[in-house]
Amino acid sequence: MPEAKSCFFAEGRYAEDAGRVDKSAKEPTFTHPYWYVNNKMPPSYWDYENAEVEFGTDEPYELIQKIGRGKYSEVFRARNRLNDELCVLKVLKPVRLKKIRREITILQNLCGGPNVVRLLDVVMVKDESTPVLVTENIEPADNFRTLMSTGRLSAFDMRYYLYEILRSLDYAHSRGIFHRDIKPQNVIIDHQRRKIRIVDWGLAEYYIHGQAYNVGVGTRHFKGPELLVGLRLYDYSLDMWSVGCMLAELLFHQFPFFRGDDNVDQLQQIVNVMGTDDVLRYVQKYKIQLSRQLTEHLFSTAHVKRPWTSFVNNRNMSWVDQNALELLDRLLRVDHQERILAHEAMQHPFFDPVRRAMKGDPQEQYPKC
C-alpha cells in the first residue's frame, strides 16, 4: 500500500495527540441531531467555569468502607448521620477547580434523568480543602463487567441493561452532555431489583458544535477511533462506540473486545478488526495528519475487515443472532458520523423483547430536581 504511506506523514508525537486536523479543509456537513442544544441554553447552564458552587461540611457523613478508586478519586460507602441513610462519597484528588465544577453542574443538570446517579450533596473535607461529591447508594450492587464475567446474565438481561444505558445516554445527549468514559465499570447494577445507574461523570462535557475537545479522555479499551487518531472535533457519537465495545464483549465473551497495550496498539487492534481501508478513509475524510511512526506502524500491513460472524464460536453462539450483529455493526463504525444514535438504537429489533416486556411494566420513577 505505497499510497497509504505517502498521504499521512507528519512528524511528531503519536500518543494522546496522534494526529491533527487540517482546518483549511472543508468540514464534513453532517451535524448530530442534538448539535444545537447548548446553543439554545443560557450560558448559566453550560458555562461551568463561572459557576458558583456552595460546599457544605462533611461532618454529617460517617465512612463505612472503601469501595473503589480511580485516576481522579477514591470512593467510599458512608452513612448520613442526620437521616441514617447510606450514600456514596466520591473524594476527589487534587484537580483543577473547573473540572470539579464541570462534574457538579453536569450531575445537577442531569438530575432526575433515567439511570443517572443522583447527586445528593457537595461538601468539603474539614481542614483539607478536599471536595467530596455525595451520591445515592446502590446496594447490593455489581458493576456491569462483574455481572458479565460471572455468567449471571441471561440474554434478556443483556438486552435490558444495554437498553437502559442507551436510555440514559439519549437523555444526556438531549441535554447537551456526553459522558466520554462509558465502560462496564461505570455502570452499577442492583441485579435483584434490576436497578441500574451510570456513574463517574468526571470526564463528561457539554457539547458545543464546532468546539475542539481533549482527546485524552476515556478508558483505553473503550476509546473511539476519533480519540486515537487525534480528531478533536468529535461529538456525542463517541459514547456510542463505547456502547458497541460493551455489546461486543457480551456477545463474544471477550473482556475487553479490543485489548490494546497502549493507545497505539489500541488503534492497531481496531484496524485488525475493522480493516485498513475503513481507517484510511476516516483519516482522509477528516484530513487528519498522522505521524510517520504511527502511519508505518498501522499501515505497513493491509488488514481486511473481519465479518462479525468470525467471532462466533461454540462458547458464545447461543447469545448471537442476526439482530445482535446488525446492531453491533451500526455501533462499531470507524467514522463517528456513521454510528447509530442512542434513540435510534433503542428502536432496533434487537431490543424488541425489552420493549414488549416494558409495555406492562411501570418504569422506575426518578425524583424531580
Automatic annotation (TrEMBL):
Q: What reactions does this protein catalyze? A: L-seryl-[protein] + ATP = O-phospho-L-seryl-[protein] + ADP + H(+); L-threonyl-[protein] + ATP = O-phospho-L-threonyl-[protein] + ADP + H(+)
Q: What is its EC number?
A: 2.7.11.1
Q: Which Pfam families match?
A: Pkinase
Asked if the Swiss-Prot or TrEMBL record annotates the protein with the keyword Repressor, the reply is no
A single Gene Ontology biological process assigned to it is: regulation of transcription by RNA polymerase II
Q: Which UniProt keywords apply?
A: ATP-binding, Kinase, Nucleotide-binding, Serine/threonine-protein kinase, Transferase
List residues binding ATP.
Answer: 90
Q: Which residues cross the membrane?
A: none
Domain Protein kinase: start-end pairs: 61-351
> What's a Gene Ontology MF term here?
protein serine/threonine kinase activity
GO cellular component terms attached to this protein's record: cytosol; nuclear lumen; protein kinase CK2 complex
Report the top EC class in one word: transferase
- Tell me the protein family, please: Belongs to the protein kinase superfamily.
Protein name listed in UniProt: non-specific serine/threonine protein kinase
State the organism of origin.
Trypanosoma vivax (strain Y486)
